[in-house]
Structure formats: structure tokens, C-alpha cells
Specification:
Mean pLDDT: 84
Number of helices: 19
Radius of gyration: 26 Å
Distance between the termini: 68 Å
Length: 486
């Protein structure tokens, strides 16, 4: 799976639309499907696609326009599914080259010549620093960019030594990432493998939602991992486990920034307002919600420290890593990397932090226990007393995508009738007739459309629900008029 740049994307889509119009064997889907590594579960996300066969391969090309805002992370996506027939690497490469040629990308696997590499470096430099043209010094800096592996099997252009310049101009900066899990095993996995973008997680079959996964696929932010920049001397970790990265990651040129939380948006209007590194670091006030999006991921070697809520948490995480045979992270002993956040707080802050940490752990444990109980009931089919809302409240996030994963699992286990009844009740009690008519017509808010479309797909009679809602609203109006007369 890979992405085509804008001009190649438009050319490929034009070719496929013409082939479809000519009656060739091309079919379309209104969802992009992902499958777990084991193949036992799939998840579908918004995003239409063309599909066609070439010899023993199935090719999927996202049919997304740059103006679309509901699935921007799929812009330019091409997925080639090769059947495992024992073909040698050279033959596989030839097949991929033929497919690219059919999409109008004749030189997709060709060697990059020096002139093309120089142009790519220059354009990357201009894009990263938000400048229209380069002077002699900037031209030289662009040519000195180095291609480096910044995440396992992912390479980016790096401006070596740039961090020292940033520090001299703007002081010590700290890129941090708060983890929305209190589970030591989950945290250890991240420290062992690094932060991975939602798009790449899904591509690898790791169908797990993060803080705002559904939203990020829509905005385009799912292609990146998110950090926030803090002034080092002012940084105060919260009750959540927090990773502090080495500031050298700022030397990568594949990241962009906003002064406030924009979910990593890539639409033209918002993207035009992004900040260059100099604008971000030079801000007189760094908002607590500033965000930087690093393409693909940030590897474990870039981790400088992990601040745990309490010393107890620190000791537990160190033990978890030791049990996995991990003794170092980023070239440092884990005992030096894993830190108690209390060391950065004064006495008053420590007292408040201890109370916050204990409350957070209690709430996290209660939520985890309730979530597991609900999931056990859903899997077993013993969930007649649960509403859809109660099921959703136990999930890692409140997105429709996370809810639909659970509902689809229940339906596949033979509980289609019960799930249909519960969706019927939820819509009946939670939607107005005007809202439901809008959603049934294909417009309205994204998560609502997903729920309505799924309900329709499993046979929920939406026309009947709408009629009941209208009747209920009519009765309520009549009762209100009678009360007024009385």
C-alpha cells in the first residue's frame, strides 16, 4: 500500500473513470476495508474506491477528491493485494510496475536521478519552512538534507544540526505526547515499538483506535503521530503517562504544525494556516493545545524520557520492560528513561498531583472493568438489558467507528435481531424527525450517518422509526397546546 502524489493521483483516477465508462471490469466500494493480522475481523471506514484485477492481483485505488473532508487520509491511496503464489521478488516487482503503468505512473519504480533528488530536497525544504522561493543559503541547506530511517522501514529527509540552531534561537524545546492508557503493557508496547500513525496501524492490521482516530481519518491527521511542544523549563507532566522525545526529531522535514488543536487537518483552507518551525518556536505564547504532526511514526530511539504519574507506576513499568528483556530505550538505561513526574513538581503541585493520579487510576480501573463486563456480555449474547449508549460509554473513544466494531462482532456472532432492536430504540428515543430525515437522505453529521447506514444495512426499518417519531412529536405538540389552553 502506498500513496500517489497529487498530480499522479488525478491522472490515475481519470484513467479509471474512463475505463469504468468504457464498460471495463471495474467495481466500486463506498468504504475502505481493513483486516486484522489474524483475519478474524474487518473494519470499514468512509472512503470510496475503485477496484480491478490484474492477473493474480487485486488493485484498490481510493476515489477521493481533494475537496472531500470525510476521508482525507485516503487521498492517493493505492493498495495492491498480491496472491501468494511463490513468485520471486523480481517477478513481484515486475507485476507492481505493470500495475503502476496501467495507472499512468510509468516510472514509479525507476531509479531517482540526481536532478530529481535535488528538486525533491528543495521542494521539501520550501514546504517545511513555508517559503515560496529559496535564497542561496536556503538552496545550500536544502541540498544538504539527508535521507534517514526515522522510523523502522520509513525514511525522511533530515536537516542535521538544525536542532542546535533552534535551541540557540528559541531556547530548550521539548516535544511531548500524552498517552491515553494507564495499562503498563500498552505503554511498554509503545516504548518498544514507537508511536505509529493510525493509517499505518490499520494498514498493518492493528485495528485499534487512539484518542481521535475516526476524526483523524477524516481530517487527514491519521497519516501522522501527534506531539505538542513545551518550553523545557515550564513543562509539568499531568496525571497521564507522558513521553518526552529528543528535540532532534525537529530536524525531520516531514512534519507540520498548528498553534492550536486542528486534528492535523490537511484541507487547503486550514493547511494554509499551518506554522513553520520558526513561527511555532518563536511564538511569544505556546498554546497548550499546539500540535505537530510527524508522518508515519516516531521510533523508540527518539524517546528521551517517560514521565509516570507516581513512583509506584514508574517501578511497575520498569518491571514490565525488564520482564520483556528490555534494558535500554534510545541508548539509555530504562531506569534513567522511566521517571517519576513528581520530581518536576513543587510540594504543593505534588500533593495535588498525587490526588489526581489516584483518582485517574480509580476511574481508569472502573472504566476498564465496566468495559470488559459489557464486552463479555456482548460476545456471549447476554446483553438484553444494555442500551447502545451503555455499550458506547465503555469504549476507548466515543466515535461511531469504535461502536460499530462491537456491534458488527455481535451481529457476526448471531445477535443481529437484538442489535437491530436496540438501534431501533436508540434512534426512536434520540432523534427528531427532521434529524432522521436528513440522515436518511445522506446528509448530516458523520457519526450519525455511519450509525444510520449500519442500521439500514442490518434491516432496521427506518421508515417505520420515522413514522413513530413523527407520531410522537404530533402527540407532544397536541399535549402542549392542550396544556396552554388549560
Amino acid at each position: 500500500e502506498f500513496k500517489l502524489r497529487a498530480d499522479a493521483r488525478e491522472q490515475a483516477l481519470a484513467i479509471l473513470r474512463q475505463r469504468e465508462a468504457d464498460g471495463e471490469d471495474i467495481w466500486t466500494d463506498d468504504k475502505i476495508t481493513f483486516q486484522t493480522i489474524s483475519g478474524d475481523r474487518t473494519q470499514k471506514l468512509n472512503g470510496s474506491a475503485f477496484n480491478f484485477r490484474v492477473n493474480n492481483s487485486t488493485v484498490t485505488v481510493a476515489n477521493m477528491a481533494d475537496s472531500q473532508d470525510n476521508a482525507r487520509a485516503f487521498l492517493g491511496m493505492v493498495r495492491i493485494s498480491l496472491e501468494q503464489d511463490g513468485a520471486a521478488a523480481e517477478e513481484v516487482e515486475q507485476r507492481v510496475a505493470e500495475i503502476l503503468s496501467e495507472l499512468g505512473v510509468a516510472d514509479g519504480l525507476s531509479e531517482v536521478d540526481a536532478a530529481s533528488e535535488a528538486l525533491y530536497k528543495k521542494n521539501s525544504y520550501l514546504w517545511h519552512h513555508k517559503i515560496d522561493s529559496a535564497d542561496a543559503a536556503q538552496e545550500a541547506a536544502a541540498l544538504n538534507l539527508q535521507r534517514q530511517e526515522v522510523f523502522p522501514e520509513y525514511f525522511a529527509l533530515v536537516d542535521e544540526g538544525k536542532q542546535a540552531e533552534y535551541q540557540e534561537r528559541f531556547g530548550e524545546l521539548l516535544p511531548v505526547h500524552e498517552l491515553y492508557t494507564a495499562d503498563y503493557g500498552d505503554i511498554a508496547n509503545i516504548l518498544q515499538n514507537g508511536l505509529l500513525s493510525s493509517s499505518e496501524r490499520y494498514r498493518r492490521g492493528l485495528l485499534r483506535s487512539g484518542m481521535s482516530t475516526s476524526t483523524d481519518f477524516g481530517t487527514g491527521g491519521a497519516d501522522s503521530v501527534f506531539v505538542r511542544t513545551r518550553k523545557k523549563g515550564e513543562f509539568k507532566p499531568t496525571e497521564k503517562a507522558t513521553i518526552a522525545f529528543k528535540p532532534e526529531i525537529y530536524e525531520r522535514t516531514d512534519w507540520y504544525a498548528y498553534g492550536n488543536d486542528e486534528y492535523g487537518r490537511t484541507d487547503a483552507l486550514t493547511f494554509g494556516k499551518r506554522l513553520s518551525p520558526e513561527e511555532l518556536f518563536g511564538s511569544t505564547y505556546l498554546s497548550s493545545t499546539n500540535e505537530q504532526m510527524f508522518r508515519m511514526g516516531i521510533g523508540p530511539n527518539a524517546i528521551d524520557a517517560v514521565y509516570m504519574p507516581t513512583e509506584t507506576d514508574r517501578a511497575a513499568l520498569v518491571q514490565e520492560l525488564q520482564q520483556r528483556g528490555i534494558t535500554e530505550i534510545g541508548g539509555k538505561k530504562i531506569e534513567d528513561v522511566i521517571q517519576d513526574r513528581m520530581q518536576l513538581l513543587d510540594e504543593v503541585e505534588k500533593a495535588d498531583a498525587i490526588a489526581q493520579a489516584e483518582q485517574y487510576k480509580i476511574e481508569a480501573a472502573e472504566k476498564a472493568e465496566k468495559k470488559q463486563a459489557v464486552l463479555d456480555e456482548v460476545v456471549s449474547g447476554d446483553f438484553e438489558e444494555l442500551s447502545i449508549e451503555e455499550i458506547q460509554q465503555t469504549l476507548d473513544d466515543d466515535s461511531a467507528d469504535s461502536l460499530l466494531v462491537v456491534l458488527e462482532k455481535a451481529v457476526s456472532d448471531g445477535h443481529k435481531t437484538i442489535i437491530g432492536q436496540k438501534l431501533y430504540e436508540m434512534i426512536l428515543l434520540g432523534a427528531s424527525s427532521s434529524e432522521l430525515e436528513e440522515l436518511m437522505g445522506g446528509s448530516g453529521y458523520e457519526d450519525g450517518l455511519k450509525i444510520i447506514n449500519y442500521a439500514r444495512s442490518i434491516g432496521v426499518d427506518l421508515d417505520k422509526v420515522l413514522a413513530e417519531i413523527k407520531e410522537k412529536e404530533k402527540r407532544e405538540q397536541e399535549e402542549g397546546e392542550n396544556d396552554g389552553e388549560a
